[in-house]
Amino acid sequence: MAADTGVPNAGRLSAIVPEPGVRKPDPLLVMDQVTRTFGGLVAVRVEHLEVQRGAITALIGPNGAGKTTLFNVVSGFDRADGGRWSFDGQRLTGAPAHRVARRGLVRTFQLTRTLARLTVLENMLLAAPGQRGERALPALLRPLWHGQERELERRADELLDRFRLGPLRDDHAGTLSGGQRKLLELARALMTRPVMLLLDEPMAGVNPALTQSLLGHITQLRDEGLTVCFVEHDMDVVMGISDWVAVMADGHLVAEGPPHTISRNAAVVDAYLGKRHDEPQATGQKEKGNGEEKGNGEEKEE
Ligand SMILES: Nc1ncnc2c1ncn2[C@@H]1O[C@H](COP(=O)(O)OP(=O)(O)OP(=O)(O)O)[C@@H](O)[C@H]1O
């Protein structure tokens, strides 16, 4: 089990009482009374949630539980109706996405945001200034090729090699398979040298071989000190790499604990009872025959 790997901060979670809102020994992200409503619908009402530094935390829950909305709010891609949250001891409440990213908290999206008509390398470089206005970036890219941005290119190449995308650096992102796009999304997120990653369904639509590769990369990043929180529906994935699992249902945090305790938790069983597990999301639909999956060539921008 990942919690017993001897990774210091992740391992410290095993001593904690598994209950919703429990305090962690070394919390990096702390949320209090975070609320987001849409009309009359309460999408998120999380009283207290702490994410342990240096650990992999899975955020699970049935469809519509509020997981993505919570990610959106704390990463500055959506506004909250109330509540406060801090990162590394500093208030982060209401900060816009670019400022959140600059502070070291970077998120990826359910539908990969790689831009199909840019090359793999360009996709990497446009992540570098801090994930701001991607539409403005083609203009920004030109000066990137000169002067001080060489260092960014070096970092991009290093990351592409790490994720085995080096040979594809000059290909258009639209020609990558769905799984390769997921790898590119992860590599891009690392361009800003984040402290913590919020990954929204990083394995959705990815074939088993690439899932293993992604899991290996995420575990390795944790072992290097990165904090990871990810939304996932596949319980094998959750059990395989999580140090800790937080469970949401109907906007609330209903359970927390080490992965092996979660499936036996009554509140979790209640939350899932009668609810259907998610289908893989739109990107990376699997292609029969060669075990490799292809994207549809065009990315949906969010
Ligand atoms: N922009 C929006 N406008 C209206 N309702 C929304 C909006 N975004 C989310 N919701 C609603 O808020 C609730 C929580 O949605 P959210 O996408 O956060 O759930 P989730 O746990 O991520 O679900 P899934 O696992 O299916 O992605 C759902 O009822 C959803 O329909």
Can you tell me about this structure?
The structure is a single chain. The protein has a domain at 2-111 and 195-204 and 219-272: Rossmann fold, CATH 3.40.50.300. The chain is 31% helix and 21% strand. The chain has helices at 8-11, 67-74, 97-102, 120-127, 137-144, 150-162, 178-189, 208-223, 235-241, 259-262, 266-272, and strands at residues 27-38, 41-52, 56-60, 82-87, 90-91, 105-107, 196-200, 227-231, 244-249, 252-257. The longest helix has 16 residues, at 208-223. Bound molecules: adenosine-5'-triphosphate. Adenosine-5'-triphosphate is lined by residues 38, 41, 43, 61, 63-69, 278. Adenosine-5'-triphosphate (ATP) binds at residues 38, 41, 43, 61, 63-69, 278.
